[in-house]
Amino acid sequence: MSVKSSITNNVCTLTLCNSSRANSLTSDMCSQLVVALDEVERNPVVRVVVLTGDGMDLSSASSAAATPPFDAALAVFDRVAKFPKPTIAKMNGPALGGGVGLLFCTDIRIALDSAFIQLAEVKRGLIPAIISLYIVPQLGPSLSRQYFLTGERVSANTLVNCGGHIAACVSSTENLEAKVNEFAQILVQGAPNAQATIKHMVQFISDSSNSEPEKFAHIKKVFNDMLVSKEATYGMYKLHFAIKKCILHVI
């Protein structure tokens, strides 16, 4: 199997397993990852997905011969980017080419401080075409042009400091595990439908093809649906009694 799955404490870890090729995104791995995500979405026990790589790499570029077809590659990136449950990238090593695209499709990224990204396609006469759909909106046009044109290595620490594209850097694999678990357990505390709605809302608002009236209408619907949702009713019920308990304690 190119993708291994394990579940602990409502958190599913999906591990890319092709360490002899630095976990490159082959056609087989792409299809297996989509299938794994489909299974995870259907599993109500799983609240958070952690994406990582086997060995010393998160994921690297494929060789020209092993590069997945356009539709297969787009399908896996889009599946991760639009996955309704929170996703965390556990960056245990470098992310290259398509691996960078996968990284930028996740919600939260935690990295070893020795990790880096590199978009070196230009040095081989290639273009980071599909992954640009997910990288450019987050990095912005200026940094995207720089990293795409130079193919330079960009450290995880740099990505922390230039806009929070990585949430945190840690110094050891033990600290990486701890930090990922910390974020995962915070996410588990959130209401699942609210989290899915938030993810879709952010994507809708940040999509420049949607007009301002369309964005306004979307937000209005989100707001009105929220007021009558079971999650909000339960959440406000708990908040009411928590406040009441605090007041009685003070009195």
Automatic annotation (TrEMBL):
InterPro entries: ClpP/crotonase-like_dom_sf, Enoyl-CoA_hydra/iso, Enoyl-CoA_Hydratase/Isomerase. CDD domains: crotonase-like. Transmembrane segments: none annotated. It comes from the Eukaryota. Belongs to the enoyl-CoA hydratase/isomerase family. This is EnoyL-CoA hydratase. The gene is ECHA7.
